[in-house]
Amino acid sequence: MIAIGFPPSHEERVYFRDVSGRELLGLEAGGLDLAGFRAIRALLRNAGFVSARLEGASFEGANLSNARFMGAGLRGASFRGADLEGADLRGADLRNADLRDASLFGATFCPEPGEKDWGPARLDGSTRLSPEQAEKLGPVQQRFLAEHLADRLPGWPHPSR
Fold first, then answer.
1. Residues near 126 by Cβ (< 8 Å), separated by ≥ 6?
2. Which of 35, 81, 75 is nearest to 59 (CA)?
3. Could you tell me the CA-to-CA distances from 150 to 127, 144, 153, 156, 159 in Å, in that order?
4. Would you say 26 and 46 are in contact if contact means Cβ atoms under 8 Å apart?
5. Domain boundaries, the chain
6. pTM score, two decimals?
7. Distance (Å, whole) CA 161 – CA 151
8. Can you say whether the dihedral through the CA atoms of 136, 137, 138, 142 is positive or negative?
9. What is the rounded CA–CA span in Å between residue 161 and residue 108?
10. CA 6/CA 24 separation, integer angstroms
11. CATH T-level topology, domain 19-161
12. 35, 55, 72, 96: most buried by Cβ count inside 10 Å?
């Protein structure tokens, strides 16, 4: 059981590791150890998980639009069917993460030209993501994913081809 903080204007605190089905808009949980966190079908728009430890977390079907996951440890996390539109995943460890069926429109996996704050997300052959999902991303993000997944996952076109 851990406390999860909200922006300073909120008096309430949540003391659960499982917030499935809850509405927690603007949740701020940056830097916390939330390994095994469960937020299935939770409403977490604009949530902040910067540098949080979320290994093995379950975000299936959750609304995480505009969430900030920069530098977060997300190894083995599941985002199946989640709304990650506009989410910032720069510098996040997404090895063995499941992003299948997640909405990724406008999501960020690597810095855009001129950005220096966070490096790229860490991906490998165990990251589950389809090429069709990348079609909703901008060209810089599409190229980054193709460069990191083309030789590791079936169906990903190589960016130089």
1. 95, 96
2. 81
3. 12, 10, 6, 5, 8
4. yes
5. 19-161
6. 0.86
7. 12
8. negative
9. 23
10. 9
11. Pectate Lyase C-like (2.160.20)
12. 72
Residue in the structure block whose two tokens are 């430890």: 53
- Number of residues that this document lists for the chain: 161
Q: Which residues lie closer than 8 Å to 160 by C-beta, 6 or more apart?
A: none
Strand partners, 33: 53
pLDDT tens digit at each of 161 positions of the chain: 344 554 444 444 445 689 999 999 888 999 988 999 999 999 999 999 999 999 999 999 999 999 999 999 999 999 999 999 999 999 999 999 999 999 999 999 999 888 778 899 998 878 888 888 888 888 999 889 888 887 766 676 666 55
